[in-house]
Every structure is written in structure tokens, then in C-alpha cells.
């Protein structure tokens, strides 16, 4: 489902143009990149030598107004992970359309460490700089997942998807699909700089706790 600009109220069209949210995103993203580039390089080298396959995993996700974009991650799975996805759907530990397996056999040893500390998400800084994503917002979903969404779930696409969000700081994979949608829509209704800053601070604690990180 693709939303037109006229369907998206101004107060929730966050991250478009030179808005305060966009200024915050760019400022913090560039600062994080300046500080973490040695970690990015080191992680890339470790991933490259840990298993066969590309360093970066590029996957098409659904973004603002239902439009697709390419999201970047460090590869945390074996090279054939996408081909094995359909075979593992019945093993999902989470209700709903999102596949989440606590002991996913597709994840490499290095990948488990990266996911535990959310290091696999670091390349999404480049998505933020490009304007495909925001630092804070609903997590971008797969095209096949969005195709199965109930009508109300499409409202989460009225803001830019984010690296972190209410879902991440509330338990990540331990949150059910319906609860995730409720949290995303709550964010859409209250998308402010203050909300973003609070979520960013809560993200540090969520990463440290590691709840639902798999």
C-alpha cells in the first residue's frame, strides 16, 4: 500500500525536507559516523573473514508513504539465509507476520554477537544521511510482510522508518506484532523532537540490557 502526500497529515510527516527532525538526524548521524568509523571498519573486516558472503547485507524495505528503499546492515547471517526463510516460518517465536527465531540457524557466530549489541545496524547511519531513514521511527518492514499487514498497520508508514523506536526500547522481538503496531502508531501520533530524544536515551539502556535482541 502506497500513501500519497495528501493522505499524510503535516504534523506526522516527520523527516521530510529541512525540518528540525531532519537537522537532528543529520547532526547526530554525522557525529556518530565521525566517532565510530574505526568500529565500522573493524566490524567489516571481522564479518569478511568470519564466513563466506558480502560484508554488507542490502535488503529492500518499505519506507515513508509505503515506498521501497535499500536498507544497509552488516551481514549477520549465512549467505543462503534468504533462500531458507520460507522453510523456517513455522519456527517463529513471535506471533504475526514477522519471522523471529530465538535460535535462528541462519545466524553466524559473529552475527549473534553483532545482533546482541546491535552492531549490525550501524550501517543504517548511511540510510539516515541519505534521508531514507530517521534515527527514530518504526522499523522498516520487508515487502512480503507489508503485503500481509492489516489496514491500520499501514499508518506506520506515515513517518520515516528508524534505526530505533518505541518497539526497540520496549523489548524488541519479545513484543508481539500487534503490540509493535500499537507502539508504532503511538509514535506516529506523537512524533516530536522531545519524543525522539527520550527514545534515543532509552536505546542505550535497551542495547545494554539486550532484551529481545535476536
Task: Give the structure's gist in a few sentences.
The protein is an alpha+beta fold. It has seven helices and five strands, in the order αββαααββαβαα. It has helices at 20-50, 81-84, 109-116, 124-130, 143-146, 177-189, 193-209; strands spanning 56-62, 68-74, 134-136, 141-142, 162-164.
What does this structure look like?
- With 214 residues, the chain is α+β, with helices and mostly antiparallel strands.
- It has one domain (5-208).
- It is built from seven helices and five strands.
- Strand 1 and strand 2 (68-74) form a beta hairpin.
- Helix 1 runs antiparallel to helix 4 (124-130).
CA-to-CA gap between the ends? Answer: 28 Å
Number of E-type strands: 5
Q: Which sheet architecture does the biggest sheet show?
A: 3 strands, antiparallel
Strand order of the largest sheet: 2-1-4
What are the SSEs and their pairings?
Blueprint: H1 20-50, E1 56-62, E2 68-74, H2 81-84, H3 109-116, H4 124-130, E3 134-136, E4 141-142, H5 143-146, E5 162-164, H6 177-189, H7 193-209
Parallel strand pairs: 3-5
Antiparallel strand pairs: 1-2, 1-4
Helix pairs in contact: 1-4
Descriptive key words:
two-stranded parallel ribbon; disordered N terminus; three-stranded antiparallel beta sheet; alpha+beta; 5 strands; about 210 residues
Amino acid at each position: 500500500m502506497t500513501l500519497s502526500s495528501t493522505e499524510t497529515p503535516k504534523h506526522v510527516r516527520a523527516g521530510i525536507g529541512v525540518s528540525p527532525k531532519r537537522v537532528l538526524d543529520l547532526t547526530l548521524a554525522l557525529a556518530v559516523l565521525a566517532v565510530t568509523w574505526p568500529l565500522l571498519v573493524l566490524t567489516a573486516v571481522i564479518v569478511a573473514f568470519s564466513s563466506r558472503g558480502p560484508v554488507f547485507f542490502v535488503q529492500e524495505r518499505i519506507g515513508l508513504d509505503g515506498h521501497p528503499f535499500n536498507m544497509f546492515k552488516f551481514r549477520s547471517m549465512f549467505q543462503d539465509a534468504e533462500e531458507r526463510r520460507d522453510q523456517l516460518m513455522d519456527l517463529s517465536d513471535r506471533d504475526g507476520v514477522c519471522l523471529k527465531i530465538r535460535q535462528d540457524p541462519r545466524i553466524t557466530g559473529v552475527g549473534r554477537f553483532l545482533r546482541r549489541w546491535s552492531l549490525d545496524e550501524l550501517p543504517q547511519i548511511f540510510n539516515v544521511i541519505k534521508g531514507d531513514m530517521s534515527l527514530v521511527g518504526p522499523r522498516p518492514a520487508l515487502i512480503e510482510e507489508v503485503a500481509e499487514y492489516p489496514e491500520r498497520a499501514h499508518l506506520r508508514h506515515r513517518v520515516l522508518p528508524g534505526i530505533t523506536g518505541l518497539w526497540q526500547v520496549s523489548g524488541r522481538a519479545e513484543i508481539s506484532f500487534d503490540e509493535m503496531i500499537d507502539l508504532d502508531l503511538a509514535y506516529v501520533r506523537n512524533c516530536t523532537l522531545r519524543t525522539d530524544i527520550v527514545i534515543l536515551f532509552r536505546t542505550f539502556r535497551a542495547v545494554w540490557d539486550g532484551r529481545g535482541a535476536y
